[in-house]
Specification:
Elements: H1 14-17, E1 24-27, H2 30-33, E2 38-45, E3 54-57, E4 62-75, E5 78-83, E6 87-90, E7 96-112, E8 118-121
Antiparallel strand pairs: 1-2, 2-7, 3-8, 4-5, 4-6, 4-7
Amino acid sequence: MDYTIRNLDETKDSAVEFGLSEVGEAHFPREELGAETTGFAYHVLRPGRRQAFGHRHENAEEVCVVLEGSGRVRLDDEIRDVSRHDAIRIAPRVARAFEAGEDGLTVLVFGPRHESDGELLHDFWQD
């Protein structure tokens, strides 16, 4: 088939699998849509919660679009406020993670798919 339509709320929530449901939802529906070269994620953070870890890529540039809510994004050592319809382009080696404000935060992230291109950064939000 040359197209696929799926409701993102009905795709697999990986936060459940990794015991992170209290933080929010983390959907990575690339395979469920049959996308071959595009990687993307759909994140829903509960009010006042931070993503459990940061990450960066070796090759993949990403664009993150705030769909709903507001909060902050940490980009390496800089923290910036973000709100509805903000688009953030992030170069591959920049470490990143989101934090929701009092109204929560919903973000759609997309970029090229590169196998084994992500590096997880635990304790990224240490204050």
